[in-house]
Write a structure and sequence with these properties.
Strand order of the largest sheet: 1-2-3-4-5-6-7-8
CATH topology: TIM Barrel
Number of strands: 8
Distance between the termini: 42 Å
Order of helices and strands: HHEHEHEHEHEHEHEHEHH
Number of domains: 1
Structural class: alpha/beta
Oligomer: single chain
Low-confidence stretches: none
Mean pLDDT: 89
Largest sheet: 8 strands, parallel, barrel
Helix content: 40-55%
């Protein structure tokens, strides 16, 4: 029993250390300071308060409102990313966030989470878009529905972010995320208003560059704070704009224990993250 307890404690410490590699701190002021430091280097940003599962919807909405106010106050080249399940898809809370964003013409981005949240996320997005146009949306490459949703995004005329996605599509759990990524990008290329390619995978970025160069596109590389910098250097060398996704708050651990039970190979990801040295840090 004692051995099990010690092992659990070690795991907790490891995961806490990993999660802290992806956030700039616990307060919005730390995220704002990070944005102010990277702007002179030619980088733009998006910030997102990370909450824990079960947090009160009102508290999460207030964190989004505070973030919006701070971005506007400091006149940053930055937009706000939100997770609508964290506010219970509540239209009244969403309207409060929009009310603040409207004052500074701030873009609000709808992040993607698990497949079971997709319909309600998109529904709230469409309702919000009818009142406030400065919105953008995420399409996960691992979901079959993303190709259909890409057509909606194009018709809406909004910016879009492509991600691999943390959760597999239950209808197609073995779907190759990289193939899905390039399929979605190909569908958007030359048709979407603006595309953010969110990856730190060098070969995938090379493939993406080949696709977007075939047609006229407005696009950028977007990368999570704390990840390796090879893709950033590649993008900068090719004149591609780079934006950092800067989370703060109480970290949501990127590789939860429950996920590792389902996918034991993810333990390698944990070890890799602990020893990585080529990551972007703000001092």
């Amino acid at each position: 029993m004692e051995t099990v307890t010690k092992a659990a404690g070690i795991k907790d410490k490891i995961f806490k250390r990993i999660s802290m590699g992806y956030i700039v701190g616990t307060r919005v002021e730390e995220a704002i300071e990070a944005c102010r430091k990277i702007e002179p280097l030619g980088f733009s940003a998006t910030i997102c308060p990370w909450n824990n599962k079960g947090d009160d919807f009102r508290i999460v909405a207030d964190a989004y409102i505070e973030a919006a106010e701070q971005i506007i106050h400091h006149k940053l080249n930055c937009y706000l990313s939100i997770k609508t399940p964290a506010i219970g898809y509540d239209e009244s809370l969403m309207n409060e966030i929009v009310s603040v964003a409207r004052k500074g013409k701030l873009r609000i981005h709808f992040d993607a989470q698990s497949p079971d949240t997709a319909d309600r996320n998109l529904s709230l997005f469409e309702k919000t878009l009818s009142d406030y146009k400065n919105l953008s949306y995420t399409l996960p490459a691992r979901w079959n529905r993303s190709l259909r949703d890409a057509e909606k995004v194009i018709e809406m005329g909004i910016p879009v972010r492509i991600v691999k996605g943390e959760w597999a599509d239950p209808a197609d759990p073995l779907k190759d995320p990289e193939e899905g990524f390039t399929d979605v990008l190909s569908a958007l290329s030359g048709r979407a208003r603006h595309i953010a390619v969110a990856t730190h995978n060098v070969p995938l970025l090379k493939r993406c560059m080949g696709i977007v160069r075939e047609k006229e596109n407005s696009w950028e590389l977007e990368q999570l704070y704390g990840l390796p910098m090879q893709t950033v250097r590649m993008a900068r060398g090719e004149g591609i704009p780079v934006r950092f996704y800067i989370p703060y708050g109480r970290a949501c651990l990127p590789y939860g224990l429950s996920m590792i039970k389902k996918k034991p190979e993810m333990l390698w990801w944990v070890i890799r993250d602990l020893i990585r040295a080529d990551s972007f840090k703000i001092s």
